[in-house]
Amino acid sequence: MTRNDLDGATEGGGATEGGGGAVGQRWPRVAAEAKVRGTFRYTADEPAGRCCFVGVHRSDRPHARIRAVRTEPASQVQGVAAVVTGADLYAAFGDRLLSGPAFADQPALAVDRVRYVGEPVAAVLAWDLATARDAAAGIEVSYEDLPAVHDVDAAVAGPPYVHETLRPSAVFRDLAHLSGRSGTNVNYEYSLCCGDVTAAAAAAATTVSGEFWSPPTHHVPIELPCATAWPQDGRLELLSTTQTPSYVRQAIAQLLGLGLNQVQVRTRPLGGSFGSKMYDRLEPLVAALAWLLQRPVRMEATREEAFYLTTRHGVAVTGHMSADADGRICAAAADVRYDTGAYADIGPRIAAKSGMVACGPYRMDNAWVRSRCVYTNKPSAGPYRGFGVPQLTWAHESLIDELALARGEDPVAFRRRNLLREGDLSAMGTRMHSADFVGCLDAVAAAVGWGRPLPRTEAPWRCGRGVAVGVKAVLTPTIANAVLQLNQDATGTLLISTVEMGQGSDTIMAQIAAEVLCMQAGQVRVVAADTDVTPYDTITAASRSTYHTGNAVRLAAQRMRDRLVGLASARLGVPAVDCKLTSDGVLSGSTQRSVSLPDLIHDHFGALGTTLTTEANFTTDWVPYDAATGRSPQITEFWFAGAVAAELAVHTRTGRVRISHLAVAADVGRAINPALVEQQLVGAAIMGVGQSVFDQLVFGEGRLLNGTMLDYQLPSVRDVPQRITPIIIENPHRSGPFGAKGVGETAIIPAAAAIGNAVRDAVGVRCPTLPLTPERLLAAMKEDGP
Amino acid sequence: MSTTIEISLNGTPERIVVDDGELLLDTLRRRLGCTSVREGCGVGMCGACTVLVNGASTSSCLTLAVRADRAEITTAEGLPPDHPVVAAFVAAGALQCGYCIPGFVMMATELLASDPSPDREAITRHIAGNICRCGTYPEILNAIAAAASATSSG
Known about the structure:
Chain A is an alpha+beta fold and 786 residues long. Chain A is built from 19 helices and 33 strands. Chain A has a seven-stranded mixed beta sheet with strand order 4-8-2-15-12-13-14. Chain A has a five-stranded mixed beta sheet with strand order 1-28-22-23-24, covered by helices on one side. Chain A has a five-stranded mixed beta sheet with strand order 10-19-18-17-11, sandwiched between helices. The longest helix of chain A is centred in the last third of the chain and has 25 residues, at 548-572. In chain B, helix 2 packs across helix 5 (137-153).
């Protein structure tokens, strides 16, 4: 269901209509050569002029009351311009200092209390970065320690409590009832109730159950966060590494008490993000400091600081799944606990919008989910590629494998019988469309030779294969806008607030506009998001841009085409229906006369260098879930559907896993650019390999123990499977731009589960805790062994 | 304490006063404007700051600028657009966000200077210390192999 400008544009509804020869082509990435040679300017490379650099003093306590902050050692250092504490900021901004996308609970600098090791307590501003950082280390804070809670289940039971009362933000009306609630660490609870799970499980022929854990992890984009703020003439200009410029403008305007047109948020394409550079990161602190001191202020996070800015949720799932005697899934249940750390960030939305798919993409009449978002004394967890779904998929795809094995059935055949098909009503209450789980599963199973004998391996290696299927709902409702300028020389300039960060949006959006306007590669340029220039867009995240912003771009381009046809019809003296836009201009079918776009626009305005402008909005709607059942007939605008198959060998003496083949399939609706889709599939799968076998943040009593790149392992070229096969499945979405949907997250969702299932196949042990480190696998094999 | 150093940066002589504790990364990036040289980790683990010092790959985040006195330094922007490695990376689509890619380009340039026809394993071994978080490794391997065959056949 969508609300958009479709009504105003002719031929607007045709999802596959176009004909310009751009969609489906492997256009090269925009700015490829500049990025390869390193001449491309990212955020930190933009000229900033003279700024005060920020050094941050951080808490070394997981939970404590701040007794006193001694700033003198820092303020007396030569070159230090100012030292600012949380109390200083609170005196200036009051409760506006507390921000967050779902809960207004996080101060830019701690006020009265610290809630995790690494929380910012005071900021030093100096004219050079080294001085700022050195002086910040000299600040002395006296604390009164409070009892801390580190484990998610201990936090559910509570006390201690991380926050005295809950403070939901005013943005989400369905959170309003939580305001002022105290005596709990559970900041949100979502429930799904479909049929009668208890009765169905009791009557089932086979039931399996398990307790699963996915640890907190980190995004680690190689570009470090950086933000610069310039106050001038009662306005604040901000240049920041953010994938949510529209959100940041709103948040900063609210913090400073300014109008939206008094805050400008500029961006450059990002050097990776994966969810780490969105909502409130460096921006509230940098903006507050710049506004308070009325000076340009710049903050560059170190790698160690970046680990504290946001993390991926550690998630515990307790679940069971049952089948009847005919091998049909009759019941599934999942009790989900998201560890959101000391500040809620977007965790409550993850608990609901991701928690609802915790039983998997299967037909079932009886399903039950309880999904809770829980505070602990750790760095805050927020969005991360997959938005909390990979952790749930780890659980349901392990369970369904065990259920198949308990029935003595092939895991692919068992899944195949039970997977949701086109038009099926899901347990969540919404029908399936453009989500070909069966096609994805069949494709990956065939790619790895499922059912054929395993490759011969020599002891102590043992070989196995596994599959997993994933489902995710796209964030709904959201809003996208596009403004298109057609320049007199027949080049296009596209104004959107989607942020290019490696997903290829600058290339994809240009292809969508070019398809409608019959243009070539390089003819449409996408402007970097700048809230003074580019229109509102909810977020560049959730794999939503190709569909939502892509639809706004398509509509704006269709309006441009209609305008050009109108102008040509008047000029050629033929009816508009006789005119067709081609790559050579507008052609009259009856007279075979044509007019080029440069001539047409030049004649219209009587000047060179002029621009024609069109715009469009694309907004999706949903039906809020029923309060009692958690179900909705329109929970989401579209579904992501994907599958992964793994073939691997486990070294039975060392516990090492060697992946020989990973096949990755996603139903993308329609691939606007197949090369970029394949890169998203392969890149997400490689990230998923890391999540499977080594990726984790390790905490001891709330202290991060591996928060440097010496200690935090990331996949290198050595960890890439010997073979990776990306497979594009296309079932066009009825309202996607040319049928397209998003793809950035689809492959990471089932990746770890497929690898875990292959390990189970190889050595016969089920390890419910990620990552599958050698130590963990050895211990499991020993336990299971003779 | 500070020292005057003389370097050849991408073929251009530079004379610059550096603090004795200054990192080559900061000299190149903040003072000489080489934006291809990037800090990703600060501990020599990601390779985003890789430059060639007298032809040898060097983590500029771990190297003092004074140690580069009288050295020839090459950064990715010093390679011409038609350089075989640059051209191969572009043709292979060997980038996503692009942030780490200049480091890989430097490693590839170093490798091909000493071994014009490396096999897959030699390429893998040579770039194993660089991280691409987007996971562009398959395309990067293909690009380096293509650059090698372009160089050796040309």
